[in-house]
Amino acid sequence: MAQDSRPITISGKVTDPYGHDCIYQVVVVNERTSEGTLASAGGVFTASARHSDTILFSASGFAVKKICFNDSAYKTAYKITVKLDSLHFNLAEVKVYPVKSLREIDEDKNRLGTYKAKSSNPEASIMNPISLLYERFSKLEKSKREVARLTDEQQKRDILKDIFHLYIKNDIMNLDDTQFDAFIDYLNFSDNFVKNSTDYELLTAIKYKYDQYEKDNSYYQPRNSH
């Protein structure tokens, strides 16, 4: 115990992880007494302490490092180099969505319904009733029609999401991106309505539905069709 309380002098330099003395405003603090000092230029420092004390070294952008000589052979003075580790932060993913103009959205609306399943052989369908039946009932043609339907549905959703971003920017509504798909299900707008309604009609309908959604979303469960 007597040896632990004996005074020592600690001096040296504080550097970055690669040994560069480019760290500014290095703080050296005695954990027991909470007394501290700033290192001079180049990270050079001198501190007085007890042999059992823990000394803290820190600087902006670096993790705190603790040094204690309690387990070392007693000497009146120690000269050391302290390498501070850089702090690492895991930032949440940020998605940036460009806000389209009404004109750009109208151009997308006009393309709604243009995704049609192409016939494997349109001339044969007209000339041959067997081919027509094949195209109507075969799995391949049904798959094509389903792909066309889903493509058109996705285009409608993308258009509505662009409209949402525009409305959010103008403080008309306040939805998180993660709520968009559920709100689109809640709207249940047809392609024809989205394509042919005026900007004012669409705004009025979405705003009315949004107000209802805000009241209902505590218990509303979106459909599992998408």
The major beta sheet can be summarized as: 4 strands, antiparallel
Supply the number of helical segments.
7
Instruction: Report low-confidence residues grouped into runs of 5 or more.
Output: none
Gyration radius, rounded:
35 Å
Distance from first to last alpha carbon: 72 Å
Short key terms for the protein model shown above:
four-stranded antiparallel sheet, alpha+beta, 226 residues, Immunoglobulin-like, single chain, rod-shaped
SSE blueprint:
Layout: E1 7-15, E2 27-30, E3 36-38, E4 44-50, E5 54-58, E6 65-68, E7 77-83, H1 102-110, H2 122-127, H3 129-137, H4 139-169, H5 180-187, H6 191-196, H7 199-216
Parallel strand pairs: 1-7
Antiparallel strand pairs: 1-4, 2-3, 2-5, 5-6
Helix pairs in contact: 1-4, 3-4
Describe the structure.
The protein is of the alpha+beta class and 226 residues long. It has two domains: 7-83, Immunoglobulin-like (Sandwich), CATH 2.60.40; 102-216, no CATH class. It is 38% helix and 17% strand. The chain has seven helices and seven strands. The protein has helices at 102-110, 122-127, 129-137, 139-169, 180-187, 191-196, 199-216, and strands at residues 7-15, 27-30, 36-38, 44-50, 54-58, 65-68, 77-83. Strands 3-2-5-6 form a four-stranded antiparallel beta sheet, with no helix packed on it. Strand 2 and strand 3 form a beta hairpin. Helix 3 crosses helix 4 (139-169). The longest helix is centred in the C-terminal third of the chain and has 31 residues, at 139-169. The radius of gyration is 35 Å and the shape is rod-shaped.
